[in-house]
Amino acid sequence: MVKLSFSKRENCPDFKLELYKGTNPIPFSISIGNVAYLPSTIYSRNMYDGGMVEYRFDERDRKLYEITLVVLRNIKCFSTNSMSLTDDGNFYDCKLCNKSCEQLDTEPMIIQKGINSITISFLNHEVSKYFKIAVNVFIGVSVEGYLAEITLDNLLDVQMKQIFGFV
């Protein structure tokens, strides 16, 4: 289980959403911050039912700098109504609290497709609070601070099509 902490930022971090066309839908990568060099990295991965989410944290300051979702085989995506996430207008740095350096989990997760959003939900944790870590990128955590959800919101139709292969 990935335990996280958050601190308010003064400004919006640079970020890049990379969408890949492949044989399977749903590959994407989110880079957060302007990483001029490849830092020593702490990897945390969750593999479940043909999907893998990988988080990369800078080993020095334990800040999250990249999230990647890879689908190893076609898995079912659930349709959902678009969620209205609470956005207080602030941006947050996300830091790893776990003491271990590398982590591999097999927590049950599902992928939900909204009208203009994609959400990865970890079923063992209920979202207590959302933190905006980049433009339209939110992380939901449980009361205890464990990762419960990753949401990309307000995506364009073309981005939705690239992610899912259809709109």
Shape descriptor: globular
Residue-averaged pLDDT = 85
Overall structural class, as computed from helix and strand content, comes to: mainly beta
What separation lies between the terminal Cα atoms? 32 Å
* Spatial extent as radius of gyration: 15 Å
Strand order of the largest sheet: 2-3-6-5-4-9
Note the run of SSEs as H and E. EEEEEEEEEEEEEEH
Beta strands, count: 14
Query: How much of the polypeptide forms β-strand, as a percent range?
Result: over 45%
Q: Please tell me the total number of domains.
A: 1
Oligomer: single chain
Poorly predicted residue ranges: none
Put simply, the count of helices is: 1
Q: Roughly what percent helix?
A: under 10%
Task: Explain how this protein is built.
This protein has one helix and 14 strands. It starts with a strand and ends with a helix. The protein has one domain. The model has no long low-confidence stretch (mean pLDDT 85). It is globular and about 40 Å long. It has 167 residues and is mainly beta. The strands form three sheets. The chain has a six-stranded mixed β-sheet with strand order 2-3-6-5-4-9, with helices on one face. A six-stranded mixed β-sheet has the order 7-10-11-14-13-12, with no helix packed on it. The longest helix has 8 residues.
